[in-house]
Amino acid sequence: MQIGDQITSVDGQDVTGANSYLYQGLTQVLEGTTVTLGLANGKSVPVTAGKAP
């Protein structure tokens, strides 16, 4: 990921437009859980949750 990348999906679930409310629920996961973020440029990035600050 780079600055300016736009996240369009989380684990294949669209989180754009009217579905943007889904983002928070799909990304608040337990430590060690991996989710895949889909980007507007067509790439996918796996991200593993760490400890909350």
Q: How are strands sequenced across the largest beta sheet? A: 2-1-3-4
Contiguous runs where pLDDT drops below 50 for at least 5 residues = none
> In the residues, how many domains can be counted?
1
Oligomer: single chain
How is this structure best described in words?
By secondary structure, this protein is mainly beta. It has one domain (7-48). The protein has one helix and four strands, in the order ββαββ. The protein has one helix spanning 22-27, and strands spanning 7-10, 13-14, 34-39, 44-48. It has a four-stranded antiparallel β-sheet with strand order 2-1-3-4. A hairpin with a 4-residue loop joins β3 and β4 (44-48). The longest helix has 6 residues, at 22-27. The radius of gyration is 11 Å and the shape is globular. 9% of the residues are buried. The model has no long low-confidence stretch (mean pLDDT 95).
Task: Describe the secondary structure blueprint for this structure.
Blueprint: E1 7-10, E2 13-14, H1 22-27, E3 34-39, E4 44-48
Antiparallel strand pairs: 1-2, 1-3, 3-4
Any descriptors?
four-stranded antiparallel β-sheet; 1 helix; mainly beta; globular
What would a concise description of this structure say?
The protein is about 10% helix and about 30% strand. The protein has one helix at about 20-25, and strands spanning about 5-10, 15, 35-40, 45-50.
